[in-house]
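Final report, Chapter 2: Outcomes

The project's central promise was a pipeline that accepts a single protein chain and returns its three-dimensional structure in a standardized token representation, suitable for archiving and comparison. That pipeline is now operational. To close this chapter, we reproduce one record exactly as it appears in the project archive, with the input sequence first and the structure output second.
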Amino acid sequence: MKDLQKYCKIAVVQAAPVLFDKTACVEKAVSLIKECAANKAELIVFPELFIPGYPYGMTFGFTVGSRNADGRKDWQRYYDNSIVVPGPETDVLAQAAKEAKAWISIGVSERDAVTATLYNTNLFISSEGEITVHRKLKPTGSERVVWGDADKDYFPVAETPWGSMGSMICWESYMPLARAALYQKGITLYISPNTNDNDEWQSTIKHIAIEGHCYFINCDMFFTKDTYPADLATYAEIDKLPDIVCRGGSCIVDPYGHYLTEPVWDKEAIIYAELDMEKVSASRMEFDVCGHYARPDVLKLTVEDK
């Protein structure tokens, strides 16, 4: 491994988006970046689809073999509030990163610049404003009627002062070979933007941290039913949701599989911590998943990366 900066001051932002409003989401993100920077954060992590939010509970009128007009109206609204990368919104975020002198990770609904396809995307923005793009490989369940499969940017990593940083979006982390593809790139920071507030997920993230002997940054959303616009054409679907739609659970797990910070539930919060990056190499003394504990003569992973 290359020499790493010894410590990383991180801020994990568990916050509600302004659903269906990309401009307001960007404004909120910039405000939160400034707050984190004032607290000397060097790496600031936002949840999955922070721009323009995760439309939990919505069907967009899809049933097997048919659609409906109201669902199409809401999808068009979500499409209009998804962003092209790079574009005006990423310009604003890049400028905020430069002013904060911090690295940013943020989830967005990305609109393809050529086709009308949307992608569930995570962006790394360096402290110099450079952007690394990761599109979700396989949207989960009914997400597939909103976002397409990644067609590029499968397993990018960003070279940070604290080592190689990669991301898996929500249930991508349940794909063992996808995890291995990141481990092969030597990641020290595993960024997990997600909307996964079930108890079982906490067991998963501890396992991944110790499997990869890396820091697992679990950044979940907190949002409530009143976050949705009241004038959605299919608001009757929202009316059936509980008051708290996603209860969070953001936390940080160290390379030994232990909580560095405990999960935070049922509120917006910014979790601050100092990551001791020497723990990564120290933890790999007896287990280095793609190093001395690998058997490339027996097992090989072939990745069709783009």
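Archive annotation: The chain has a mean pLDDT of 96.
This record, like all others produced under the grant, will remain available to the consortium after the project formally closes.
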